[in-house]
């Protein structure tokens, strides 16, 4: 694979980043994951807008140039022959002597991008549906900033796997926040799509925004509010959204079947509508 590091396209075996990089030492870094379908970037503007916001929230002295970043994404997609998959971008505050204080603004940010081939459209998990378990949300309180502090989500996913499930839904103050790396939704008895409202408690998903807009266009009812695991277990359907999973049905929570335990019609329809809109 060819990867991008600070202005250079190099084979992955030749790519290097300093051991003093603050992304490595302090998780002082932000990232984005953009899906690629048919060689095309999905919702790229949304990802760049969110990246700009993450950079601003952390006062990173990095310039986020949409046209330049698009060019790098497209170059990597082409060089690595990505028809379907993902582009990962990570931007750190750069390398500096280890100090909790940010270095002065002359430090050069580190920009790294790489690609991953992945069948995102024909994903067998979308036919099967996912099993999730609930776990406490022990992440920090600024989940709206897309930082690389992913250790807790990683631990939670390991725990979910140990319990025989595919992922975890995280719970704080009795309410579901989101999944380890996706936004969480339920469908109530009257067909309303319910997902947590935007705040610092969740990542403002780019796929979430697109799916909610498409749902409203299709005349579906959407309510942005918190919900409990008990409400989710009693829901008609459940699903998650993310750039890598699109709309992914959830068929059980903590071992309890959602609906009849198979992929729900609304989740299937939304996935279809979303995929159609990409074409
Ligand atoms: N994760 N919530 C969390 C905690 C996430 O990490 C993600 C994305 C989402 C969905 O956001 P979007 O629709 O913009 O992808 C919600 C990416 C895909 C990842 O970490 O791989």
From TrEMBL:
One of its GO terms (cellular component) is cytosol. InterPro entries: Aminotrans_IV, Aminotrans_IV_CS, Aminotransferase-like, BCAT-like_C, BCAT-like_N, Class-IV_PLP-Dep_Aminotrnsfr. One of its GO terms (molecular function) is L-leucine-2-oxoglutarate transaminase activity. Its EC number is 2.6.1.42. Keywords: Amino-acid biosynthesis, Aminotransferase, Branched-chain amino acid biosynthesis, Pyridoxal phosphate, Transferase. Transmembrane segments: none annotated. CDD domains: D-AAT_like. Its cofactor is pyridoxal 5'-phosphate. Pathway: Amino-acid biosynthesis; L-valine biosynthesis; L-valine from pyruvate: step 4/4; Amino-acid biosynthesis; L-isoleucine biosynthesis; L-isoleucine from 2-oxobutanoate: step 4/4; Amino-acid biosynthesis; L-leucine biosynthesis; L-leucine from 3-methyl-2-oxobutanoate: step 4/4. GO terms for biological process: amino acid biosynthetic process; branched-chain amino acid biosynthetic process. It catalyses: L-valine + 2-oxoglutarate = 3-methyl-2-oxobutanoate + L-glutamate; L-leucine + 2-oxoglutarate = 4-methyl-2-oxopentanoate + L-glutamate; L-isoleucine + 2-oxoglutarate = (S)-3-methyl-2-oxopentanoate + L-glutamate. Coiled coil: none annotated. Acts on leucine, isoleucine and valine. Belongs to the class-IV pyridoxal-phosphate-dependent aminotransferase family. This is Probable branched-chain-amino-acid aminotransferase.
